[in-house]
From TrEMBL:
InterPro entries: 4Fe4S_Fe-S-bd, 4Fe4S_Fe_S_CS
Cross-referenced PROSITE patterns: 4FE4S_FER_1, 4FE4S_FER_2
Coiled-coil intervals, chain numbering: none
Name of the molecule in the record: 4Fe-4S ferredoxin-type domain-containing protein
Domain 4Fe-4S ferredoxin-type positions: 8-35, 36-65
SUPFAM superfamilies (UniProt xref): 4Fe-4S ferredoxins (SSF54862)
Length: 66
């Protein structure tokens, strides 16, 4: 995959995630559930942000650049 602009991987705010699983319906291979909380595989995440757009709790955020 060639990208014109690099986007940071996303992260889940575990305090905000309510386990509704709506993000999983996007069909992204980077998303899974662990102990009723969404988890994003940082290696597979392309940073497209579709999962963040569907999250009703706004629990999926851009990972801060350190």
């Amino acid at each position: 995959i060639v990208r014109d602009e690099w986007k940071p991987a996303l992260r889940v705010d575990v305090e905000a995630c309510n386990g509704c699983r709506l993000c999983l319906q996007v069909g992204c291979p980077a998303l899974s559930m662990k102990e009723k909380i969404a988890v994003i595989d940082q290696v597979l995440c392309t940073g497209c942000g579709v999962c963040a757009q569907v999250c009703p709790e706004e629990a999926i955020l851009e990972k801060a650049v350190i």
